[in-house]
Specification:
heterodimer; A: alpha/beta; Rossmann fold; 2 domains; 7-stranded mixed beta sheet; 3-stranded antiparallel beta sheet; 7 helices; B: alpha/beta; 6-stranded mixed beta sheet; 4-stranded antiparallel beta sheet; 10 strands; 38% helix; globular
């Protein structure tokens, strides 16, 4: 848990408070997180701050991470499953500098994992915290543009409209075509956007032993799924939820169980499938 | 409980002294009536006479400044519509009630198919079998005389009359007991109007629906309603059986209204 002792002025040549945000802001965010954990799937508004990177690059996730991180944490940051993409590298370096934390690319060693678009393939364990970067926290937004109305729908558990969108998808495409940001029901009460992870990862959210925190910086919302909470992907009785399957296996590690990225490797259109989770893939080679 | 709400025994909907002001201006004043099961009540009057405000008050869409609206639910006895929690009022509105708007675009989801529009109420109360929902939607599409092959088309591709019929199907699919209609045939050409009136008359009879119908068209009122209330300046100036009001109007305003019908 966070180190709440007196701020360290030696951080980053004394220019910043520990973990970049000032203590009052971190308190405010922690309060929002506590409320979010207490009401699984409910979107808690918080006073989002300007961060030193643009909206859409993970400002929500960074604020959540900054509020919960302490000196004895080990941080892993992934973007699309990879540890070595620009965004992941800069966020990891940012926290190494302003929070003086150890960083890792190994899922098992990390205590805090900030992620965009993926949940690691390696099963998470108790004590780990998964921080999601969320662009649009409201799962009903595309169906109902008014914020007052979506809040009412959540409050009254009126979720017919979400089912309508799934119906429409089957009517038009013969199956539920939504492949990422697939809506889930948390603890039988709130419909939640799992952030733009592929639906392949949805089953990993269900009763996960790790704590899941979701931060949306632009929309200034935090929500959470506490450990061991049931998370159910929405579906129809005669069109049950299912995840993607590939006929190929990973070209590098041979995995048949992981989420694969398709890559074009030459001008002749030769294709290659590789694991999107780089740590998982390297561990198997 | 029904006694303290001031409703008459056996009435489906009872309004008592319903008054609504907008910024001091009275939109409807002291309106009281009982609606009996299976009855279609018409509210007629010129534009601005408070018809639609009254309808919205009855349907719980706006809260009156004074007065009460009591509704006899199917299972839980008589309730005061405006004292219900918002959750229960909305549940009532999508199960036991229907609301047909004048502009079908307000009552429909224009971005999703006809089938999804009809199925929404079913899904809202927990239907989770795609095949069944689709079957029911197709069945209702046929009942409102729309070709079955339009099931997956969006209402944006429908004509005005078809949209209105789709809106009716979307409301009736949950088997409501009471339907509020706000000028259901307004803005449609006469042949389309006639078809919709015919359809509505058949459905009301077959399903034993009660309805409150707001219209400025006395012809529509004559065809569909059993009883009529005439409104002027927010107040009810005359009420009675439809034929009686239209054939032997007593109030000067009603006489003027009846005399204004263009002879064909």
């Amino acid at each position: 848990m966070p180190d709440t002792s007196t701020p360290d002025t030696t951080i980053a040549e004394g220019a910043y408070n520990y973990a970049y945000l000032d203590e009052q802001t971190k308190r405010m965010i922690r309060r929002a997180i506590l409320k979010a954990v207490a009401v699984p799937g409910y979107q808690v508004p918080f006073g989002g701050r300007e961060m030193p990177l643009p909206y859409g690059w993970g400002t929500g996730g960074i604020q959540v991470t900054a509020a919960i991180i302490g000196r004895d944490d080990t941080l892993k940051v992934i973007d699309q499953g990879a540890d070595d993409t620009t965004n992941a590298v800069s966020i990891r370096r940012f926290f190494a500098r302003v929070a003086e934390v150890a960083t890792t690319t190994c899922t098992e060693d990390a205590t805090v994992i900030q992620t965009r678009h993926r949940v690691p393939e390696t099963p998470l364990k108790e004590g780990q915290i998964l921080v999601f970067q969320v662009p649009i926290p409201e799962p009903l937004r595309m169906l109902e543009p008014r914020e007052t109305e979506t809040r009412t729908l959540h409050a009254l558990s009126e979720y017919g409209v979400m089912q309508v969108s799934l119906y429409e998808s089957i009517a038009r495409h013969g199956r539920i075509s939504k492949s990422y940001n697939y809506p889930v029901m948390v603890n039988g009460r709130y419909i939640m956007s799992p952030s733009p992870i592929p639906k392949f990862d949805n089953p990993k959210l269900d009763r996960s032993p790790a704590l899941q925190l979701y931060g949306a910086g632009r929309e200034k919302r935090i929500y959470a799924v506490p450990p061991h909470t049931p998370v159910k992907s929405l579906d129809f009785d005669d069109h049950p939820f299912e995840v993607e399957h590939w006929s190929e296996c990973c070209a590098l590690c041979g995995s048949k169980e992981s989420f694969l990225d398709e890559m074009i490797v030459d001008d002749a259109g030769k294709r290659l499938f590789v694991c999107s989770d780089t740590d998982y893939c390297e561990g198997r080679r | 409980m029904s006694g303290e709400l001031g409703s008459s025994d056996g009435a489906l909907l009872s309004a008592r002294n319903v008054t609504k002001r907008f910024a001091g201006r009275v939109a409807c004043r002291d309106v009281s009536f009982d609606l009996w099961p299976g009855e279609v009540l018409g509210i007629v009057g010129e534009s601005g006479s408070g018809k639609t405000t009254l309808l919205n008050c009855l349907a719980g869409r706006i809260t009156p400044d004074a007065g009460s609206v009591a509704y006899a639910t199917a299972s839980t006895g008589t309730v005061d519509v405006h004292r219900l929690s918002e959750a229960r009022r909305r549940l009532l509105a999508r199960t036991e009630w229907g609301f047909v708007n004048q502009d079908a675009r307000e009552g429909l989801r224009m971005g999703v198919s006809a089938g999804a529009n009809i199925g929404e109420r079913l899904m809202a109360v927990g239907a989770r079998h795609y095949g069944d929902i689709r079957g029911t939607a197709a069945d209702w599409l046929a009942r409102v005389e729309i070709d079955g092959d339009r099931l997956d088309d969006r209402p944006a591709t429908f004509s005005g009359g078809m949209r209105q019929r789709l809106q009716i199907a979307r409301n009736l699919v949950s088997g409501p007991r009471l339907v509020f209609m706000d000028e259901p045939t307004g803005g449609l050409d006469v042949s389309v109007q006639a078809r919709i009136l015919d359809l509505l008359r058949g459905l009301v009879e077959r399903l034993h629906l009660s309805a409150v119908l707001v219209t400025h068209d006395l012809g529509v009122a004559r065809l569909l309603t059993h009883r009529l209330m005439v409104m002027q300046g927010g107040a009810v100036v005359e009420e009675g059986l439809t034929d009686q009001v239209l054939d032997d109007p007593q109030h000067a305003y009603t006489q003027m209204l009846v005399a204004s019908i263009l002879p064909v």
